[in-house]
Amino acid sequence: MPGFGDPAASIFVLGLAPAAHGGNRTGRVFTGDRSGDWLFASLHRSGFANQPTSLHANDGLVLHGAFVAAAVRCAPPANRPLPSERDNCLPYAAEELRLMPSVRVIVCLGGFAWDAALRLDPPPPPRPKFGHMAEFELPSGRTLLGSYHPSQQNTFTGRLTEEMTDAVFERASELAIR
User: Which of the listed CATH numbers 3.40.190.10, 3.40.50.2000, 3.40.470.10, 3.30.70.260 matches domain 4-176?
Assistant: First the structure.
């Protein structure tokens, strides 16, 4: 499943994979599921989306300055992709990034996306560790910015709050204009 958003984006949001009952069902990543509800509400509050929800692919959602994609392009069993699935799908994200030279920040939703982004633009050792609000400048000059994934297990438990998610996109915005 391809990513979507502003082709002139300065912020590339990289998630894990389309959810079986969300993006896989609707045809657009992070659309029609609770993770997407959380993500698009924050993108809306941060000025990157014209509306706070996304129910289906033709619901009028427009992203400004942001592009949303997934490291794995199909819904993996039990939401746990194999390394081979990541490696087979990663060239698609690489091509999306190649076509968007204006991307300055890659927001990684979770450790899996962080690892995938590091494979797209490998830095010299030591490998930077994922964390919420972790930042790392890649050899390309782009900045990785870590965020906990907006999954229900993170949002329902309070591990990820709306304020924390909004802070990620505020920081991404700051980094994008440097």
Answer: 3.40.470.10
